[in-house]
Amino acid sequence: MSALQLKLAERTDVLFARRAITRRADPEAEDHETLTREEFDNLVERDETALSWEAHGLGYVIPKTYDEHIRTGSTVIANGSRRVLARAAEKYQTAIVLLITAPVEVLAERLASRGRESRDDIEQRLRRADLEPQDVPNLHRIENTGTVEEGITEMVRALHL
To answer: Alpha-carbon distance 5 to 14, whole Å?
Structure first.
């Protein structure tokens, strides 16, 4: 995602959504706002999010402010979850979904390298994951096994940018 953001840095009509997560900020990981569980629950209850979901014991929010950018014609790129794909496709009829994936063995190695979950947790996570979402309009599958440049080229092409 950061490489794509660098590639599109000159585009004033493209924004990258900064998520809010019920996890402490980690300078080695994603730059995000930190929410308490209570703040997350309140935002969701009051429908003050563009999108929200729960996964792996955490709450995730795409702030509602990005809806205005979309309404005015900007492209907003957000890191989401398979759990929210149907809701996103329903809310944003022109949404393009990039399913960035890799073989299960590669995903397990990448998750383990983060150091956030035990090997057992990772295996359970991948077993229960819906790695092949169905009935998602405008879905483009991108295998994240080549070079960063190849992945960026595929993403830009799929996003029509």
So the answer is: 9
Which tokens hold the place of 108?
């397990």
Give the percent of the chain with pLDDT over 70. 95
Q: Quick one: pLDDT at residue 66?
A: 97
CB 161 within 8 A of CB 14: yes
Distance of alpha carbon 76 from alpha carbon 56, whole angstroms: 25
Cα distance from N-terminal residue to C-terminal residue, the chain: 15
pLDDT tens digits for range 112-123: 887 777 777 777
Question: Containing H/E element for 50?
Answer: strand 49-55
The structural domains of the chain, ordered by start, are 2-159 (3.30.63.10)
Dist CA 61 CA 47 (whole Å): 11
